[in-house]
Every structure is written in C-alpha cells, then in structure tokens.
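Standup, Tuesday
Yesterday: got the pipeline producing structure tokens again.
Today: sanity-check two examples.
Blockers: none.

Example 1:
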Amino acid sequence: MSTQYDICFVTVGDKKVAGDIAAGLLKEKLAACVSAVPGVESTYWWKNNIETSSETLLIIKTRRILREDIIQFVKRHHPYEVPETIFTEIDGASREYQDWIGANTLFTTNISMDKAPDAQIL
C-alpha cells in the first residue's frame, strides 16, 4: 500500500555541503530526517568523460507533495551544476513512522501552482 511519503537521494561532494543541505531542509520543514552516508563512490558520465568521485549520500525522508520544493532547495544550495535529486515512494512503513514524518514536515508545498514546472494552463 502506497503512502504519501517519499525518500529522496542526493549526493554531495563533501561533509560541509552535506551538513548545510541537511540542516536547511530540516529548518525549512522540507524533511523530517536526513541521513548522511559517507564514503559512497560514484562513477558517472560528465562532459563526455567518465569520472569517479567520493561522495556522501543524503537519504531524505519527506512528504511527496514537497518534491519540487526539495528540488529547488537543492539547486540553490548545491555546488554541482546538475545535482542529483531522485525520489522514490515509501511503499510501506509503520503508521507511527508515517505520522512522525507528517508531523515534522510542511503540510503543503511552497511552490505556487503557476510556478510549478508541471503546471498546465487550462
């Protein structure tokens, strides 16, 4: 059974950026919890070259409705030209944990519908 909550993955290149992004997401109530997993090695294509970097993986627990807010926050605070923001639904979790995420995040998005990237003109 699907929930109204997501996990978002963001990789960052150093501990300070990881801490700043985690603290900012929590302060703005865009996340209930951010777990930082250091020592992730990422290999990827960048500007026609294969690169390898040591990174920290942020695992962000949040409400689904806050996806665009998180994307915009990460873009503003991340040094990468194209920061990773990948969301996946929390397909199941204890009711208590879901309630805790809900109690510690914004109830609704801060992005107005006319500025959301998927907004449609009717």
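Example 2:
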Amino acid sequence: MHSPAPKAASATLARPVDLTTLWIAPPLLVLGGLFFYPLVLILGQSLGSDGSALSLRFYAQVLATPLFQGALLHTIVIAVASSVGCLTLGFVMALVLSFVPFPGARGIARLIDTFIALPTFLVALAFTFIYGSAGLLNMSLMATFHLPLPPIDFLYSPWGVILAEITVYTPFVMRPLLASFSLIEPAQIEVASSLGAGPWRIIRQIILPAAIPALLAGGSLCLLLTVNEFGIVLFIGAKGVITLPLLVYDKAIQEFDYTTACVIAMVNIALSLSLYSLYRLVVARFGGRNAGLV
C-alpha cells in the first residue's frame, strides 16, 4: 500500500504563488524614495551624522536659543488665533447661509469653497494691494485727508498674518459646518420657535450641539494647516514675525546652516504629527460623515 504523503507534498509545491502581495511593492518604493529616505536624511543631519557620532546635543543647543523659542511662540500663537478666528467666522457665515434664506446664498457658498483651491500667497498678495503701505485703502485715505503717512499699518504685523490665514482657512471650517447643518430637520427649529424659543436659544440648544463635531474637526484641521503655513508669512513679510517653517527656510537657504535647519524641521514635523493625530482622533471619535468630512 503506497503512502499518500508524496502526493500531498507535490500538491503543495505545485500550488501557484499568490502575486497580489507584490502590488504593495511599487507604493512602498515610491514612499521610501520620496518621503522616508529624505526624512531619514533630515533626522540624521539633525543628529550630526556628517562624520561625527550621533548625538542630541544639537537639539539642546537649538532649542535653548531665543530665536527658536520666539519662532515656536509665534507659530503657536498665530495658529491658535487663526484657528479661533476661522471657527468664529466660519460658524457665523455657515449659520447665515444655512438658516437665513436670501437670493444667491448657494452661489456664495460655492464661491467660498473655491478658496480651498487657491494658493495661499494670492490672498497675501490681495491684502498687500488693499491694506499695504501703498495699497488702495491707504492711498485713498492719504489723498482724502491729506495724511503724510499711511494710517493703516496692521498688515506687516502678526495681525496681518492672522487675518490672511483666517481668510484662507475659514472655508475648511465652513464646509463641514454646512454639511452638518444640512442634517438638522427644519421641523425641530419650527417646533422650538412655535413654543416660544428665541433665535439665541435655538442656536444654543439645537444648532450648536449639532455643529460641535464639525467645529472640532474643522478647528483641528485649521490648527494643523496654520502651524505649517509658510507662503503667507513669507509673502507678507511681517516685521519680527518668524515662525518655524520660515526659520527653517532662513537657516537652510539664507545661512546654509543645514544642521540647525534640520533640527527645527524635526521639531516642526513632530508638532505637525501630533496635531494630525489629534485631527484623526476627532474624526474617528465623531465620525467623518457626522463631521461633514466625507
């Protein structure tokens, strides 16, 4: 009587190889070449890999400098202030567009959405034409009131950067808010109004609870984007306003101090990844569909 073991072994050897797992190789190669490899180089440079032993001494030196601390403070303050402004303005505008019917409301909402596709420096350029020292508003006021100096000079300060970022990133808050408001049943508002509830009470007890997931998701996204904003800060050229991305540019491109630039870049990356984790946590907690993100 013959043993079936050889047949089983031959069947195992003859089984075709599953090639579907090989499809993951091209994306991994692209990610490795375009993202992970440069990131490893930046990390190595920040640790002093250019012939010297790897060490954190460069981090201790850079993080202790007033220039870095000031840039970190400016980055956080501008990002938080811009995000708060986006939340406030976005909530008010989405509220008006959703619950105050007027001709052209849908067209205005579509127009605001187009800001998402525009480069950020275009807003900074527009602000320069309007609010700059030689801008339309200053020149008109100087000609009208015979002023020797431009009366409006907020543009070249942190307030100018914050206002420009609010203008650019408010649509990122409005979009999920408009989607969230569209899920509110009009009957809820009609019943509350018929029972004597005023507009502020309706907003506080019906609209605001429905908007919280979208506000959290949109706010965390704005915080992530404003922390990494570079074009607006560079283009406006606000005096004394140096953020982490701008400091990386200054150290790498203007001073050729690549080690310091890489240290600051790694700190900026760590900050960005932390904020992205917060954003993903908010979306996972409340659901992308409920937050209007899908």
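Quick observation on example 2: The chain has 14 helices and no strands. The chain has a mean pLDDT of 84.
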